[in-house]
Amino acid sequence: MTEGRIIKALSGFYYVKSGDDIFQCRGRGNFRKQNITPLVGDFVEFDSQNPDEGYILSIKKRRNMLIRPPVANIDQAIIVSSAAKPDFNPLLLDRFLVMIESKGIEPIILITKKDLKDESELASIYHYQRIYENIGYSVKLISALQSEESGGLKHELAGRVSVIAGQSGVGKSSLLNALNTSLKLKTDDISASLGRGKHTTRHVELVEVGGGLVADTPGFSTLDFDDIMLDELPDCFPEISERKADCKFRGCFHNKEPKCAVKQAVAEGEIAQSRYNHYLRFMNEIQSRKPRY
């Protein structure tokens, strides 16, 4: 029995890397009965007589997992936003951040296409950059991804498993192509009529980039909060989470409760009003969702 990591899933086969070798494996027959699906990124035990005939025997406990794209044991997510085409959207960025934080994945914010704005128009982008850096997030602002600037990201990838997230048209595929020229992911120009990009999703694979592994399929295809409970939401906002112990009432939701340290921090400008507004919006969304049985 050998240990390895699934780096690709395609047509019912799982490609497991162990050392410098890659083994083509199938899952055990009882996986389906037990409703177990191996994921790219899983650490597994497998048995293989040769590189083309192996069987995954067990899957080790996952640190985290995503459904779309289906990847497990992720270290960080590069959340790609754009300064223009489409315009920077802080609400959408915060949705991505909440999703990533809820999975215990470290986010890196990448704002692209700064060259499409003049300096006066970039003032708003710089404002938001300061907001997120003050929270503690790493924020990078670069020009078009075809430039060499994307190469500066490679040191962030070393020794880590990364996924790329962001709305359509911001340049996720272009980023991956710039980081690894062998990928040649399909990208299309922005659809002017729809204001969003087009992308053909392929199978999921972890590819080596900059000494780390990157999932070569941009996701997420959905941004609902179905898996986030109301009491978990404050912990998805680091600046709220670090102040919750100072609220008068335990279990404070930082909305209508008196003597709330979070609301005081907002009033004093220590928490950005935009972030707090988005927190309240997401809280209402979670409260309004239909119960699942």
From TrEMBL:
Its cofactor is Zn(2+). Gene3D superfamilies: Nucleic acid-binding proteins (2.40.50.140), P-loop containing nucleotide triphosphate hydrolases (3.40.50.300), Probable gtpase engc, domain 3 (1.10.40.50). GO terms for molecular function: GTP binding; GTPase activity; metal ion binding; rRNA binding. It is found in: Cytoplasm. Residues 63-223 form the CP-type G domain. Zn(2+) binds at residues 247, 252, 254, 260. GO terms for cellular component: cytoplasm. It comes from the Bacteria. It is an enzyme of class 3 (hydrolase). GTP binds at residues 112-115, 166-174. Binds 1 zinc ion per subunit. Its main location: cytoplasm. Keywords: Cytoplasm, GTP-binding, Hydrolase, Metal-binding, Nucleotide-binding, Ribosome biogenesis, RNA-binding, rRNA-binding, Zinc. Its EC number is 3.6.1.-. Residues 72-221 form the EngC GTPase domain. One of its GO terms (biological process) is ribosomal small subunit biogenesis. The keyword Nucleotide-binding applies. One of several proteins that assist in the late maturation steps of the functional core of the 30S ribosomal subunit. Helps release RbfA from mature subunits. May play a role in the assembly of ribosomal proteins into the subunit. Circularly permuted GTPase that catalyzes slow GTP hydrolysis, GTPase activity is stimulated by the 30S ribosomal subunit. Monomer. Associates with 30S ribosomal subunit, binds 16S rRNA. Belongs to the TRAFAC class YlqF/YawG GTPase family. RsgA subfamily. This is Small ribosomal subunit biogenesis GTPase RsgA. The gene is rsgA.
